[in-house]
Structure formats: C-alpha cells, structure tokens
Design goal:
The complex is a heterodimer of chains A (78) and B (386). Chain A is mainly α and 78 residues long. In chain A, 42% of the residues lie in helices and 3% in strands. The chains are: A mainly alpha (78), B alpha+beta (386).
Chain lengths: 78, 386
Amino acid sequence: VPTLQDESVKAVMYLAQFGYLPAQMTNPNSGHLMSQDAMTDAIKEFQAFAGLNITGNLDKETVETMKLPRCGVKDKVG
Amino acid sequence: FGIDARSKRYALQGTRWRVKNLTYKISKYPRNLPKADVDMEISKAFNIWSGITPLTFTKKKSGPVHIEVRFENGEHGDGDPFDGPGGTLAHAFFPVYGGDAHFDDAERWTVNSYRGTNLFQVAAHEFGHSLGLSHSDVRAALMAPFYRGYDPTFELNDDDVDAIQALYGLPKKTNNKPTPTEAPGEEEDAELCNDATVDTLFNSAEGVTYAFKGLHYWKLTEDSIASGYPRLISKSWPGLPGNIDAAFTYKNGRTYFFKGTQYWRYTGKKMDGDYPKQISEGFTGIPNNINAAMVWGGNGKIYFYKGSKFWRYDPTSKPPVKNSYPKDISNWEGVPNDLDAALHYTNGYTYFFKKGSYYRFNDRTFSVDVADPPFPRPAGYWWFGC
C-alpha cells in the first residue's frame, strides 16, 4: 500500500472525524487498512455534501474546503 | 442527501425533546467576551428557534437544566477535543445525548463584528443540533457545517425553518380564547406542575400514555402534555372513580385500574361487564391499597408495589404469585420505597415516579440508570412540560 502523503493523512482524519470514513481512521497510527475505492467514495460524498465538483480526488478546492472553520458535529450521523 | 441541487435539504438526527419548555445555563464563559454580551448573544440564538416553534427557552443560573452551554479549551471531558483557533469552532449534542453545547474558547468570539468569529451565528447553529437537527447540505442554511463569516442581515434559510418545524411544529397561536376542547372550569384548578406528583401513569392499548391525579387526567404526547387537558376521569372512563392507586394495560389489551380493595377492567374507555371486583378475587396474592403497578418489559409479567415490598403476578402460572413473594423493592437497585407510579414506557425503558421525581430503570443492569444529570430527575421538567 503506497504510504499516504501528509495531505492525504489529514484528509483521512478529517473525513473520519466528520463521518465519511470509519471513526477509527481519526487516529493516523491506527494501521487501519482501507481500499483506494473507499477513500474515493468518501471524498465524493464530502464533495457532494459541500457543494463541490464531485471528482473523488483530493483536488485543491477540496483541500481548501477542509480547512474552513466549521462545526465539530459529524456531517453523517449513524 | 442527493448529489444534485434539487435534492439538497436538511437532515434530522432522529431525536427531539418531549417537552417544549426548555431550560439552559451557561456554566463556563469565554475569557475574551463580557458576560453580559455572552448572555445576550446566547439568548438571541435561542430566540431564533423559539420564534418559529412552540419551544420556549428559560435561562437558569444553576441546577438541572436541559441544555448546558460551556466555553472550553482542548480536551474537555467529552472525548472530542477542540483544536485551537480555526478548524472546529464548537460542537453540540443531540437531545438523546443530553443536548449540551460546547464552544472552543481558543476562538476569538465577537459580537456584531466582521472580525473574529460571530458568537450568535455559531450558537444558533449549535442549538439546532441541541434540538435534534443534523447538518444540511444546503450551503446557505444555518445548519450547513461551514462557518460563513459575520452576516449583519442574518436570517434563517427556509431549509432551517422546514427542519425545525418538522420536529416541533409551528408556534402556538397566542389568542387568549380557550381552545374549544378546553376542559370546563373546575379542571382549571387541577394542577400537575405544582408538585408534579401523580397517582398513576399507564399506557393504553393504543400506546397513549396517561397521567392520573385526583379526579383528573392528562394525555402525554411525544413532546409534553396534549392541549385541552386536564379532563375528568369519570367523563372519559365512565364508572371509574378518581384517586386511582395504580393502572396498567396487559397484553390482552385490557386496562386494569386499582383503588383500595377494588379493581376495574376496561377495554379502551369502556368498562367490561360488572366491575369493580375485589382485588383478592381477581388478583389472588396481591394486597389491597397498592402504590403502583406495571407490566415489566423484561418478562411481560405484572409487578405490584406497596410500601417497601413488591409482588410478581403471572396470570399464566398456578399460583399466579409464588410464595417467595413479597420481596424487597431494594432488589430494584436504586428504586425507592412508597412509590407513586411505575411505567413501562413506549421507548422500552421502565420508569418509577415518587413525589415529583422520577427514576429511569435500566432493565439490562437491573438498576436505576447512571446518567448526567443523575436520577432522580424532576418529573415536571422532563415529562409534564412544566
């Protein structure tokens, strides 16, 4: 599995914190395996929810949106 | 949520408050804003929601409240640490998790200013969660997750209004005319909120919960007390007296009422045959003058409570009450003696009521639930909308 770049690690933690990925992923050392598809789907869901272009990639617009000040409650609640 | 603009909309978490008159307190203020400003902005944020629903919000200085507001730094005890300036600004808990709202005290909270982070707007958003709203994917909605900067002409989006009214309905009409189903004069002196004690609480076969007190009764709704109550017991259950000791509805759909040495059986609100009968006849092994009764969700058997003792009644076994009964109520860990009422509520929990307080019983641990705020809690707040 390719090691994740710093940006991707932050994105994984963000997506997990707000309910797009399993909660365990908020810990970068969790060693939790995840397929690329799962990551792509999670990015797409976030982009749809945030009203961004739905590319499935961690493009500039998506990374910038993840830096915006926001509410700490998950976007997706079980 | 859809992935195109047409289907963007609000989301409900799934729980809401059963009472409409909610209380809050600010138990920890921010370091960088005068208390008076914080009080004002928090009150304005609650008013956003009370203005379009029947909800009311009353500020208290201390004691048990529905919604606690705190400004905290970093890790603050709920397992969801704040992250310093920017990033996460605040979070709140849905009603089922207590409804509290926490704000990151590392933020620069401001009032009516383009600088810093506007307290009123963030608080209004968080209280949406406290009332049961999840995030909306309508970008212009207050309940969208991203902070959009100070908006001097702030208004709720239609999506926010639709969401909260889906949960709590429209504001009550303020006309002073009594609603047509208002009970006649003498009911007015029947009061549930003075001490919030009841004679008994029970569910009908249709799953409606009623509170009996003296000659009157109230229908409990999802949120609080239904309008148009109290009413006279004798008007709705012909032949049934007031000051009932206990009541329950068994799985045969019949509702049984107990008073002194007698009991009555009804199907719905119609008495079955010639009642009252003697308790000693129809419920052999059960004493007279009981305090409370219920059908326990744990085993479907009927439990009677009197003084410090309880009896288990099983109509399907001979004898219906084993000779090992009565047993001490202390077996129901945390439940007091001399109860007023016991209720297996439609949410699956078992509740015990005594002198205006109530206890939620955890059938799994077989003890009163440990929660924050702890039990006993004031029944008036949490059950009767007082």
